[in-house]
Design brief:
By secondary structure, the protein is α+β, with helices and mostly antiparallel strands. The chain has 16 helices and 20 strands. Belongs to the oxygen-dependent FAD-linked oxidoreductase family.
């Protein structure tokens, strides 16, 4: 045999030995590693796989290597150790509401740890605290806590998972009185990159505790449960709706800008505009009489065509504001759809008349169904915390805007809509809003997201990442990196 032929044979043998493992080999190895997990495991060949990878946003789909339905902290720890050993990505899914599908990794081939079964809620009445499993949805949390006379401030959508929601801040219709969900966290239990369960609080790992409250959505580890400080449920709550003539839109913004921050902290309002529809929904933690009294000046300035006030219990208000998101008493329902969203924070004195006209023109010309939502943020508890006290930096804002576009399913039309939304978002931000956006309305296309989501806290967050996850095991397209460079 010639030397040349021997070399070729050796080369072929080397290539064979070093060949990448097949998908089946990877799946078999992963399945063996995950064998100690007691929860269900769904692999790509399983019949339910195609259904289980569907989350709230159907615009994009990623194909995980496996979905692990953890039933215990030990299941989470085993999953993390397998991901480390096999060098594959890992992510947590709490409610499946990530706008960019980061709950399934933001890419193919990731090990997804679904936390839905980590849904215990343990209330300590004397301490006025609750330990809440990270897989709980907001609807059942509101219900369970209210049965004991308590609440945490959070969002309106009942099917949103508390894990992702509170780790990104968590604003909602009780925010002006109580602040963000993250502001009420007293400690967090998290499985780190080594597979160890650690606690973050003001006393233990305080640097991690800082980071998790605003930037903790999957960047540092897998949160398994959260301890919240509870607030008392008010005896009476008034939900209200103010309807407006779309041609008088500017009057509504005049009221938001001029009167909004002077509304009592017990009242939070959200303005929604779309073609031919302008409406404010709100919640007042008090009687209908006191709500109408508090809104007297606002109503005078904005001139609604119709007003409705509903005095009810706290949980009845939660259900009403859940916008048909409940099935039966407390079970939240998902409504998957294909969408894209942008967000903007507006500081005082608010959106100018040119800004109002700009967004109204956009809503009336884009080919896809689109609405804009303005959540009053200013004049409340969320503004009273320093921007560097937690990772949530957006403390000096007047209101938060969300632009939400529902796609049609027609590829060419949807491309036009997405291009228009992106172009408008860039121009609108430069001309009319602050530089910042809301991390819970995460947008993969956002330029300089590092500073638009985290501002002056970003470099500090990367140092925390370097300390707790130096090998960047927990990563997705917009996770906190190990370096600010």
């Amino acid at each position: 045999m010639s030397l040349k032929l021997i070399c070729i044979c050796i080369l072929c043998l080397t290539l064979t030995i070093n060949a990448a493992p097949s998908k089946k080999q990877v799946a078999d190895t992963l399945q063996e590693c995950l064998n100690p997990v007691k929860g269900n495991k769904v692999f790509p060949n399983d019949a339910v796989y195609s259904q289980d990878i569907i989350d709230e946003n159907t615009r994009i789909t990623f194909k995980p290597a496996v979905i692990v339905y953890a039933t215990s902290v030990e299941d989470v720890q085993t999953s993390v150790k397998c991901a480390t050993t096999l060098k594959i990505g890992i992510t947590a899914r709490s409610g499946g509401h990530s706008y960019e599908k980061y709950g399934t990794g933001g890419r193919d081939g990731v090990l997804v740890v679904d936390l839905a079964n980590l849904n215990n809620i343990t209330i300590n009445n004397s301490k006025k605290t609750a330990v809440i499993g990270a897989g709980n949805k907001l609807g059942p949390i509101y219900y369970t806590l209210s049965q004991s006379g308590f609440l945490i401030p959070a969002g309106s959508c009942p099917s949103v998972g508390v894990g992702g929601h509170s780790m990104g801040g968590g604003y909602g219709l009780y925010g002006r009185k109580f602040g963000l969900a993250s502001d009420h966290i007293s400690s967090v239990n998290m499985v780190n990159a080594n597979g160890d369960l650690i606690t973050a609080s003001t006393d233990e790992n305080p640097d991690l505790f800082f980071a998790l409250r605003g930037a903790g959505g999957g960047s540092y580890g897998i949160v398994t449960d959260i301890t919240f400080n509870l607030s008392p449920v008010p005896p009476t709550v008034t939900s209200f709706t103010l309807t407006y003539d779309p041609s008088k839109l500017q009057l509504t913004f005049d009221a938001m800008n001029q009167v909004g921050t002077s509304l009592p902290a017990e009242m939070t309002i959200s303005l929604s505009i779309s073609p031919n529809n302008v409406q404010i929904v709100g919640v007042h933690l008090g009687s209908s009489e006191s709500a109408q009294s508090a809104l007297k000046k606002f109503i005078k300035v904005s001139s609604p065509t119709d007003t409705q006030f509903n005095e009810e219990t706290f949980f009845a208000s939660v259900v009403r504001m859940g916008f048909q998101g409940f099935q039966g008493t407390i079970n939240p329902t998902h409504h998957p759809n294909s969408f894209k969203a942008k967000s903007f924070f507006v500081k005082s004195p608010g959106l100018s008349s040119a800004g109002v006209q700009s967004i109204n023109n956009f809503l009336n010309t884009i080919e896809c169904s689109t609405f804009a939502e303005f959540d009053l943020f200013g004049g409340g508890a969320a503004n009273s915390i320093a921007p560097d006290e937690t990772a949530f930096v957006h403390r000096d804002t007047l209101y938060l805007i969300q632009l939400y576009t529902t796609l049609t399913g027609d590829e060419s039309t949807d491309k036009i809509c997405l291009d228009k939304l992106t172009s408008f978002g860039i121009t609108f931000q430069k001309r009319f809003t602050s530089y910042f956006s809301y991390q819970n309305y995460i947008d993969r296309d956002l330029q300089d997201w590092q500073h638009r989501y985290y501002g002056s806290n970003f470099e500090r967050l990367t140092k925390v990442k370097q300390k707790y996850d130096p090998k960047n095991l927990f990563n997705f397209p917009q996770s906190i990196p190990t370096s600010a460079n």
